[in-house]
User: Which sequence fits this backbone?
């Protein structure tokens, strides 16, 4: 499916496909992605295809959700990804996002993050979402707070100084 999963005022969120490999290659090799999210070992377009196949597409098949491509509604140009991740070491689903440098600071992460939280609650019936963030990533922490997340008392399972934020989506 290459159609829209959800649209916002300026954006379309859609499933990633293997055709998005050039975009993924550029995104996951961005210096900020490497510092704050980590090196995904994507060194060639074939690696980007494997990343999409094993990551987002595999997650869509297993859970119904994953990281979705965030495109400008007007042009269809991919500018980032945003979505939901289920990591084995955590009971809760976490929100993830990354944007190309030239699209940071324009409110796109907040707009897509709000849409992802809506999907989490309304489509996937999640009651709580967590976020894993590097403590030095002030921009991401600011975004999480704007999205209604608060610092969690939970300890991160991975030992790389990750901190956890959480947000209740309703219910108890």
Assistant:
């Amino acid at each position: 499916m290459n159609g829209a999963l959800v649209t916002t005022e300026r954006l379309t969120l859609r499933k990633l496909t293997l055709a998005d490999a050039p975009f993924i290659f550029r995104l996951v090799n961005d210096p900020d992605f490497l510092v704050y999210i980590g090196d995904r070992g994507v060194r060639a377009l074939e690696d980007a295809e494997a990343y999409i196949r094993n990551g987002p597409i595999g997650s869509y098949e297993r859970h119904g959700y994953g990281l979705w491509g965030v495109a400008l509604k007007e042009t269809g140009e991919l500018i980032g990804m945003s979505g939901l991740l289920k990591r084995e070491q955590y009971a809760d689903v976490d929100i993830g996002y990354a944007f190309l440098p030239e699209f940071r600071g324009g409110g796109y992460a907040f707009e897509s993050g709000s849409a992802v939280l809506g999907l989490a609650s309304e489509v996937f019936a999640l009651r709580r979402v967590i976020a894993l963030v590097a403590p030095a990533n002030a921009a991401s922490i600011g975004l999480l707070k704007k999205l209604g997340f608060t610092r969690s008392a939970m300890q991160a399972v991975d030992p790389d100084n990750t901190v956890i934020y959480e947000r209740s989506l309703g219910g108890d």
The two ends are 35 Å apart (CA to CA). The beta strands are 4-7, 11-15, 67-72, 78-85, 93-99, 128-133, 150-151, 163-168. Residues 45-63 form the longest helix (19 residues).
